[in-house]
């Protein structure tokens, strides 16, 4: 199993029935493939739709129906579309139960950086600042390290996306919960020891007596 | 029945140095025919207010590549490497605005509001130089309204009174931009007689639309 799939399958267990969820571009998008059976989750795309479905077969695309990355999608029965002001009123106004976003860094205060590497990478914040500010729960799905450097850091060296403390980080090595007292190591990836997690982490982690292996949602199913 | 104009006539209405709001989200729901005509006219020094600069060869990306754009006020440029190159080379100014804040600043510009108070951006680079105002003990950033000389819209249907509808995620910024510019120019996929669009389905009342492109020949 590749680590991206593993992260997505762990994040999928955070989904709740009848909730409204926004998935960021990239790794977070994979989460939609692992919705646990029996849950009805409404996925929002920030460009203006609730209830989008899987990619259509080739040749059946609607040029007016895309996700936030510009990729073609379909609409599930009961879907609703709206303009950008409404879409961000949903996000900022407390109507969004959860967002799953990618990350460049998370620090000991639970702050996320994911929109700018000064002088190098200038994608812009898009909807990320609104999502982190407004969603009831913010889950970050990312690799634990990039080019050998820990992305879980003592203090952000990149510009923060929001001053808000995010709620959960899921990586290829661990599940970490930012709390007022610091970063709590909640789970470790299958086959990964607590020592290995600590060795790969720049930030100080609070390690409880028991750190169970992370459970995973069951393997890939086509999006309902 | 109101009369349409050609894309070239629309482009001729827009002077060099004008500020434009352009609908679209990574090119979906952008008025491609007006954009093509601006490129053909060789427009220069434009300020573009939009969600993004699409991709090279698509939508606003065509204006960027052709050197029409001096300044962009957008939420992200991650899908267009040409914009990033031009920005780093100092050929184009880019002002990044959080997407929800951009939508509300445009809405405020079209709704006669003096700005909006938003928690988005507090404690980040987006807050630099902006007043923080407390309401009921909670801090908010004061974000100023945005208006433009022109709004260039993509609609699904337009009727002969220029009432507009939009389709699915091609809606995006088009309806809010229709309210926030001095001159509103729309192009539609279909042009239909008055009455085909039920009043409840009209998203932008035709009285707000100054010009509509004739159908493509």
From TrEMBL, chain A:
PROSITE patterns in alphabetical order: COA_TRANSF_2
Keyword entries, A-Z: Transferase
Source species, domain of life: Bacteria
InterPro entries: 3-oxoacid_CoA-transf_B (IPR012791), CoA_trans_fam_I (IPR004165), CoA_transf_AS (IPR004164), NagB/RpiA_transferase-like (IPR037171)
A Pfam family it matches: CoA_trans
Gene Ontology molecular functions: CoA-transferase activity
Homology family: Belongs to the 3-oxoacid CoA-transferase subunit B family.
Entry protein name: 3-oxoacid CoA-transferase subunit B
Taxonomic lineage: Bacteria, Pseudomonadati, Pseudomonadota, Alphaproteobacteria, Acetobacterales
Automatic annotation (TrEMBL), chain B:
Gene3D superfamilies hit by this protein: Glutaconate Coenzyme A-transferase
Keywords: Transferase
GO molecular function: CoA-transferase activity
Keyword Transferase appears in the UniProt entry: yes
Domain of life: Bacteria
PROSITE patterns: COA_TRANSF_1 (PS01273)
Keyword Transferase: yes
SMART domains reported for this sequence: CoA_trans (SM00882)
One of the Pfam families matching this protein, by short name: CoA_trans
NCBIfam families: pcaI_scoA_fam
Similarity comment text for this entry: Belongs to the 3-oxoacid CoA-transferase subunit A family.
Protein's UniProt name: 3-oxoacid CoA-transferase subunit A
Organism: Roseicella aquatilis
